Structures are given as structure tokens and as C-alpha cells.
Amino acid sequence: MSSRLFGPVRSRRLGISLGVDMVPPKTCSLNCAYCECGATTSLTLTRKEYYPTSEIINQLTEYLSSKPQLDYVTFGGSGEPTLHAGLGQVLAHLKGSFPHYRTALLTNGSLFSDAQVRKECLGFDLVLPSLDAVSNKAFKAINGPHSDLTAEKLVGGILEFGKQFAGTLWLEVFILPGVNDTEEEIQLLSEVIRQLAPDRLQLNTLYRPGTDPKLQ
Fold first, then answer.
1. Cis upstream peptide for 8 (omega within 30°)
2. Which residues pair with 169 in a beta bridge?
3. Closest by alpha carbon to 81, among 159, 133, 24?
4. Does residue 199 carry a pLDDT above 90?
5. Pairing mode, if any, of strands 42-43 and 27-28?
């Protein structure tokens, strides 16, 4: 089996970060217009063991046993990590066997409406969910969601997770001119952000080519 680890890389936000890629490219619940990983080829909300959980744990154990200098072990990569059914088990192993390493989760937040997913993610030190739109019109235009996923469901899940999570929460908002930067859309976003009260708000614009070539 190929390695599910990548890096360590120097991240602008996370310092020296060891990546953990939990799902095959490009398995995701969204097909975001700006995604630097390319178009989603498997659009799904189904959680399953995309790669053997035991293999991911073994690879982490082997790598971390050499005591590398890291700022974070970061779950992200080429798809939505919460789709992997073994996420909680891998995190529990890290916390039990390598508690001195901080953990981070890069997520689109789309599965936080699932109580089990929220429970599994509460152990992270840092969670970075994305929220680009509150109206369904803008949500569909920007994020290309699975047909069973609505903006209301996404927002509700993120807010519920925020109530339960005791770690650090950084919210990412991607601004697309003409789509979610209108006065109405910004007001909707602002109301949700005030409710969530993240530790940090990160506003993003296009830095690398996305899936939609028309984006500037």
C-alpha cells in the first residue's frame, strides 16, 4: 500500500505540518469551483474505510516513532477526511501514543450534521472548517454540493460542532467576486460567523488555479 502520509511541508498557517490523506483523490462531498486539487470525481456523503485504518495507524506509528520535529499532524489532502470511517480511531491512536504532537483537521464541515462525526472530531487541537455561503443559491454556485446536502444542513452542523468543540477553531471563507460578495450574502455570512465566534476568521481569494477557469 502506498503511503497515506505526505510532507512534512512548510505551511503558511500551520508551520511544519505532516499531512495525513484519508481518502482517494478526488473523493469529496463538494465540488468547489476554487479547489486546487481539481474536480471531484467521487461526489459522496458515504463514510467508509477508503484505506485500511490499521495501515494508516501503522504508517503514523513508524514515522512518529523517530520523533520528528512537527508543529502539526494535519488531516487533509486530496478529499474530505471526515468521509473516512476510521478517522476517530486514527485520532485516538495519535492522542494515546503520541500526545505531544498537535493535530489539525482541514474540513469542509459538510458532515458535522452527523453526531458521530462531531464526536470523532472533538479530540483535534485545531479544526479549520470552511463556510463560503449561507444561501443555497451561492452554496451551489461555489461549492457544487452532493444533492443531499443543503446550505442549511452545512451551517447547522458547523454551528453545532462549534458549541461542543473545546479546541481552537479557525473558520475559512472563500470570497468569489459576483457570487458571495454581495451585501446580502455578506450579511448572511456575518450573522452565522457571529454565532459561531471562531478563534480566527480567514478570508481567502484565488491563489492557485481552481477547477473553474473563469475564476479570477
1. yes
2. 127
3. 24
4. yes
5. parallel
In three-state form (DSSP H/G/I as H, E/B as E, the rest C), the secondary structure along the chain is: CCCCEEEEEEECCCEEEEEEECCCCCEECCCCCCCCCCCCCEECCCCECCCCHHHHHHHHHHHHCCCCCCCEEEEECCCCHHHECCHHHHHHHHHHHCCCCCEEEEECCCCCCCHHHHHHHCCCCEEEEECCCCCHHHHHHHHCCCCCCCHHHHHHHHHHHHHHCCCEEEEEEECCCCCCCCHHHHHHHHHHHHHHCCCEEEEECCCCCCCCCCCC
Band of the pLDDT at 38, cuts 50, 70, 90?
confident
Per the CB < 8 A criterion, the answer to whether 141 and 151 are in contact is no
Pairing verdict, β 42-43 and 5-11? unpaired
Using CA atoms, how far residue 2 sits from 6, 22, 50, 56, in Å, is 11, 12, 13, 10
pLDDT category at 35 given cuts 50, 70, 90 is confident
ω into residue 26 within 30 of 0, thus cis? yes
A 10 A CB-CB count for 36 gives 11
For 100-147, the pLDDT digits (tens) are 999 999 999 999 999 999 999 999 999 999 999 999 999 999 999 999
Q: Write out pLDDT tens, residues 143-187.
A: 999 999 999 999 999 999 999 999 999 999 999 888 899 999 999
Phi, psi of 97 (to 5 degrees): -100, -25
